[in-house]
Amino acid sequence: MSRPGSDPGLTGRQPSAVHGALSVLEEVARAGPGVTAQQISRSLGLPRATTYRLLNLLVQDEYLVRMPDLAGFALGHKVALLAGLAAAAAPAENPHDIVVELRGRIRGGVHLASYRDGVLELVDVDPDFPLSDERRLLSDLSSSALGTLLIAERRHDPLPFSSRPTPAMPGRGCFAAALRDATGALVAGVALALPEQRLAEPESLLELIAPECRRLEAALR
């Protein structure tokens, strides 16, 4: 008979069993496909009989699968399903918020451009560092780093970045990093408006903004 206020469907041993099953799943994920029951038992400090019982339950419920040679175990399709559902449920970041963060740590202007349908379009211009000649930037692609990325893409010679001096502003320059989709196609570009001397090491600039570029690529997908 259950005590008042207790859950008759949950015994004192069940939480321990659930914890053990989750620990086994974590160990298989950590060790990788082919890990054996003996290795799991040793790593987790579980009795061998308990380990086998948990493994069998997880295999029956398709959270684990036996390897073809029956010597070890790997994660099953239900784990992949749960991971996929979790990824789908995670809200995508707002590209504008990422650009704002980048502006907070770059001493210069930060602009975001789209290349949708193969056309350069400015979608997020830095209000504190307005473009010197937006009309020319859009009409003469060769005059800007953003345009140069698109020219290279059209020629099937993709670039990871481009840098150019700003014609209308002596001593100033522009660096642009390419943002690509899962197929590798150019979809957007991040441009930095900087003093021209800072363009001397473009690889360092690319490394500097790489974290935000990766986040922007994920958000734009």
UniProtKB/TrEMBL annotation:
Highest rank taxon of the organism = Bacteria
Where is each HTH iclR-type domain found? 15-77
Instruction: Tell me the PROSITE patterns matching this sequence.
Output: HTH_ICLR
Pfam families, per this entry?
HTH_IclR
Against InterPro entries, the record matches this protein to:
HTH_MetabolicPath_Reg, Tscrpt_reg_IclR_N, WH-like_DNA-bd_sf, WH_DNA-bd_sf
Q: What's the protein called, per UniProt?
A: HTH iclR-type domain-containing protein
Species for this entry: Gryllotalpicola kribbensis
Lineage, opening ranks: Bacteria, Bacillati, Actinomycetota, Actinomycetes, Micrococcales
